[in-house]
Amino acid sequence: MRNLVVFMHISLDGFTARADGAMNWIKVSDELFEYANARTEVADTALYGRKTFEMMDAYWPTAGDEPDASKHDIEHSTWYNKTLKYVVSETTEQQDTDKIKFISGDVKAQVEGLKKQDGGEIIMFGSPGLARYLMAEGLVDEYWLFVNPIILGAGIPLFANVEIKLRLKKSTTLANGVVGLHYIKE
Fold first, then answer.
1. CATH of residue 76
2. Rounded-to-integer distance, Cα 4 and Cα 135, Å
3. pTM of the model
4. Which residues form the Bacterial bifunctional deaminase-reductase C-terminal domain (predicted)?
5. Distance CA 127, CA 146 (A)
6. 3-state percent breakdown (helix, strand, coil) of the chain, nearest 5
7. Is pLDDT at 68 greater than 90 in this prediction?
8. Number of structural domains found in the chain
9. Which residues of 70-96 are buried (b: 16+ CB within 10 A; e: fewer)?
10. Beta bridge partners of 121
11. 162 vs 86, more confident
12. How far is the CA of 123 from the CAs of 8, 80, 109, 152, 166, in angstroms?
């Protein structure tokens, strides 16, 4: 059974973005990218909501090819291009390709089916609405949360109307004040 891992930046008060979707408060650094890269290396499948996928797919396929590409851009672009991506969407009219598959209808059953397949971890970046749905259905096995030292007061929450018992597996404090927390579901 493969683990489904939520990988998310959050504010200290649990928001993934401002109410307008802005994420300009997220602190990034080479140290954070190295930490994140270690996680993506064990995942061979990515799961996205439609909006997050569209944002990611507009940037990552060619990010590593740019003349000024950073080490992180090159590494993540390479990972993104070789990774099988599943996109949960009821509205997209796009067709499946060899590396991009669309999920609609009975999302729970389809994600359960993905988890039963052979392979590495299934990692989900962003997509807080999808994350909340998957949490409510009991499908998330691990949480990699990057808690940024900011209180937004309002915005798009990661956790809403759900109780999940977790066990802290590891915490890492980065030099920029971000705390990486790795939790597993009890």
1. 3.40.430.10
2. 10
3. 0.92
4. 4-179
5. 15
6. 30, 30, 40
7. yes
8. 1
9. eebbebbbebbeebbbbbbbeeeeeee
10. 43
11. 86
12. 10, 11, 17, 26, 18
Structure tokens at 134: 């998957």
Domain with 69 in it: 4-185
User: What tokens appear for 50 in the block?
Assistant: 């439609």
For 137-159, the pLDDT digits (tens) are 999 999 999 999 999 999 999 99
- Confidence category of residue 168, pLDDT binned at 50, 70, 90: very high
Q: Give 40-88 as a 3 state SS string.
A: HCCEEEEEEEHHHHHHHHHHHHHHCCCCCCCHHHHHHHHHHHHCEEEEE
Q: CB of 164 within 8 A of CB of 135? A: yes
Encoding tokens for residue 90? 């009821």
Element (H, E) at 38: helix 30-40
Tokens 């996680």 correspond to what residue? 39
* Orientation of helix 71-82 relative to helix 50-63, angle to 10°: 120
pLDDT at 91 over 90: no
Residue 78 to residue 34: CA distance in whole angstroms: 15
CA dist 105 and 9 (Å) reads 28
Binned at pLDDT 50, 70 and 90, residue 37 comes out as confident
